[in-house]
Amino acid sequence: MKTPLLASSAPDAPEPLPRCPGGPVIGIIGSGDFSRSLSIRLVASGFRVVVGSRDPSRVPIGLFPDGVELRSQGEAVDGAERVVFAAVYPEHYHTLVGLRERLAGKVLVDVSNAARMNRVERSNAEKLAELFPQSGVVKAFNVVSAWALQGGAHDGSRQVLICSDCSDSKAAVLQLSRRLGFSPVDVGGLCASREVEEAPLHLFPTWGGPVLVTFLLFLFFYGYTFIRRVLLPFIDKGENNFTQLPLVAVNRALPAVALVTLALVYLPGLAAAVLQLGRGTKYQRFPVWLDVWLCRRKQLGLLSFLCAGLHAVYSLCLTLRRAAGYTLLNAAYRQVKAGVENSWVEQQVWRSDLYLSCGILGFGVLALLAVTSLPSVGNALNWREFTFVQSGLGYAALTLSVMHTLFFGWDFAFLPEAYPYFLPPMYLLALVLPCVVLVGRLVLALPCLTVRLTKIRRGWESARHRRPENLDAPGHCGDV
Ligand SMILES: NC(=O)C1=CN([C@@H]2O[C@H](COP(=O)(O)OP(=O)(O)OC[C@H]3O[C@@H](n4cnc5c(N)ncnc54)[C@H](OP(=O)(O)O)[C@@H]3O)[C@@H](O)[C@H]2O)C=CC1
Ligand SMILES: [Fe+3]
After folding, report:
1. The domain 25-201 belongs to what CATH superfamily?
2. Ligand 1, residues 33, 91, 196: which to mutate, most atoms within 8 A of Cβ?
3. Which residues, if any, are the signal sequence (predicted)?
4. What is the ipTM of this complex?
């Protein structure tokens, strides 16, 4: 129910709130972005909401969903049954001290973030608890952005870190966040709030390693093509191939990076299988580097997809280059001069069609993999479907990409001119790791190894491990 804009903006002239039937009333102090997004989520989850503003007449009620009451700060606190959110920046907390008595006995939720990392002073939540000693201050929801709150994906996958020194208040907020469709994690007392407040300041913490690996691979392949096709021919014969640098060289490096990165997605799974086979048990932790690598496969896969996508776009643009026009004209002129009427080479037609077809199919499968790595899509699949997509289709994408590269290379690797300055063609280098992975996968598919590995993964242990104390040893961290 939408209230007409309040006649009175004086906070101390409380007007009884109309009590409409429905869920519990939640109070929110502040009418900014977070308040708006939170009220959308609360209303969608069946709560009633009363928002407290310093000046309700200045806040356009249309920005809030139907049913939200817009009142003074004091009225919002009084109207809330138990839980009140402080959706204001922490530097303004002191302006709320006039509400101390009215907030006594209520749960006061602090949603603020830290302004910087490694602070020495107390956390915002600890400061708020000092200002409001009679309220149960709880730190929560700060890791969720206003945008994610509005998104309303009630899939329970989004974690909310919660801490408080008051167990009753914490329990109330844990329950509330579950009803809002989040996955609450109790991280202890209010002393944990400093870390919780700094959590949103980390920038893509799981992407650093994969991005660095992809960047270094790009530098390597770009550097290799620069030396082999530009620098050495220039020093040796004075050839000017520098025009290749902005586009052609980039488009040579990108597919190589995509291929190697995709191989890096499947290599740790093979290494884990080999370790388990060698150890004869799955109840031993993997080395830390392997654990970390296993946990970064999704990021590596998405980066491989990005490079493959860029390669596709670059390749489509190759014919738009001025250089492509000149090369075609020159070739046509030479052909006319030589009196050649038909330049059709059957073998080359097969080669280019096969190479393009494998590339398109490989990219399509890779796109499917990327889509299923989205939590909302992945969550809709059962375990068998997810394994089929991520492992079965993953190897299909790798095989198609290897075939695309082999058709591209054709018989070139067998010609002496493929090795100028004793440097092999780049596509051969890019094929090494993917071929190792594919051969490794085939070897592991041998029945004797598959049967043993399946037994190990279902809990069987070789004789040297079968001791009673092993029964409660920890399992491995990454799923393979
Ligand atoms: N936006 C986001 O994505 C997220 C925000 N947060 C946290 O939520 C809190 C609010 O953020 P957000 O909603 O984005 O900020 P906004 O600036 O959009 O809103 C803050 C609100 O605070 C109220 N307020 C109360 N007292 C004062 C005062 N003295 N001076 C200025 N404003 C005051 C104002 O409402 P009025 O004028 O009606 O009184 C204002 O609209 C912050 O602590 C932030 O760290 C946490 C996670 C995500
Ligand atoms: Fe290609």
Report:
1. NAD(P)-binding Rossmann-like Domain (3.40.50.720)
2. 33
3. none
4. 0.96
